[in-house]
Amino acid sequence: MYTADTITEVTLSTATLPLTTPISDAKVFTGRQKPMSEVVFLFAEIKSEQGYEGLGFSYSKRAGGPAQYAHAKEVADVLIGKDPNDIAKNYVSLLWAGASVGRSGVATQALAALDIALYDLKSKRAGLPLAKFLGAHRDSVRTYNTSGGFLNASIEEVKAAASRSIESGIGGIKIKVGLPDTAEDIRRVNAVREHIGDVPLMVDANQQWDRSTALRMGRAFEDLDLVWIEEPLDAYDAEGHARLTQALDTPIATGEMLSSVAEHKNLIAKRACDIIQPDAPRVGGITNFMQLLTLADEAGLDLAPHFAMEIHVHLAACYPREPWVEHFDWLDPLFNESLETEGGRMLIPNRPGLGFSLSDQARAWTTETVTIRG
Question: How much is the pTM?
């Protein structure tokens, strides 16, 4: 028989993960951003009266980490004394606690860490991996590597990284494009295609083409059998993405930069992609992400969540259509556990909840923390 539980403690912390080598995508080469040297995380740890604990996280790859932490600190106290199992009800309480800052951007990214922690706690209570708790369609998902394909790496380095990824059981390779010199983009993509043979290959322009360039480059890549072209245009140019989706045989993928359900609804309504790429920490957590899965499936879209594979491996397993999950090894030092890849697929952890706990290294990288109690 179920007896009501209550949240007794919420601990928030922010940690800065340094990257071994600063990385650059097209936004750096077009002068819009500097090379990225670190990722800032917001961790939420929630404890209940009955002894259950949940862990969730959000992140910022450049600006925004301190803002996420600040917003979470302002609203997290509304969870104290609430039943952690009432996730939808708790999410609404968090939204109203910070209603004046809206339901997108930093606001939803801050709430994501708390929402994910509640799902982690609840699935641990059930003794199930999160995917099984939510309702999985499969025990593994296709996976592709991105971290070896950045533009700061020479083409020989990209090829070597691709070989290592394939040998480790990863099933696809994505490389960055969007250089001011489009001929160099074409040269790099052709070199990688020749190197990996018929292994699935994706490219990502990180929003750096205009409409005419995107169409021209898409046509230049048509014979390379790409799985998709990612973010060819500005993330909010739904109309432009829709035109490309109609004009090209190669599928178009986008959505990672959107930070609300409403923004994704617009993308879906305009048929602006073939493959949708929501990011659970960016859209506000699992509560919102699962809404998007329903909308995307109804629209007949494929799914390839962005980043945060530790979360997305579970969520992608719940999608009716065969998805892809992005493999980044950057987060490995943060956790005591790791994900396994085999035969081109990422295996769903058999541990309860997300299946991850913070490492001593994550604690050492923590720059600020606060515990909220009743």
Answer: 0.96
